Amino acid sequence: MHQDMKEVLFTKEQIHNKVKELGKKITEDYKDKDLMLICILKGSFIFMSDLCKEIDLPLTLDFMAVSSYGNSTQSSGVVRIIKDLEENIEGKHILIIEDIIDTGLTLSYLINNLKSRGSKSIKICTLLDKPERRKSQVKPDYLGFTIPDKFVVGYGLDYAEKYRNLPFISVLKEDIYKKTP
Ligand code: IMP
Ligand code: MG
Q: Which of 16, 25, 87, 164 is 20–30 Å from 118 (CA)?
């Protein structure tokens, strides 16, 4: 384990099995539907690339980048679109791929924004859910794991842009983010 980590929550194998399970469910649910995956960068890039391979359907995909955190571990509640979609979502069934839902502020903003663009449906698939800190009523339609109120990194998730490449999901040692002003 990496020296900055306190404990591993989910190993590479556990994540892999969960992603396969989610892919199977999504494949069944979206059969004969025009499915488009929207990956919310950067945190979801690994989840998206693994998950889309487990969905056995002729789908399309696109990427969107938003910012809500800066380098802190607390949500500012302010969401900014840094990169918008390139594809038209009109008439498509949209599945938003997220790494983690925490306060829910990012997703509720995004859903409202996407709703005005004429898609047929919008659903949420998140790898992790931290329901204890919810400030906005958003519920995932597809969920990997529910976790306690701890700051986690790895498998795409970062702290100050670091640790995204760790193949497992783990709790970051508190002194790592407490010493940063
Ligand atoms: P929300 O708006 O509070 O739901 O924030 C969601 C975003 O905050 C996620 O997409 C992550 O980028 C980030 N985030 C929330 N909790 C964590 C965490 O424990 N580790 C890393 N990033 C997190
Ligand atoms: Mg994110």
A: 25
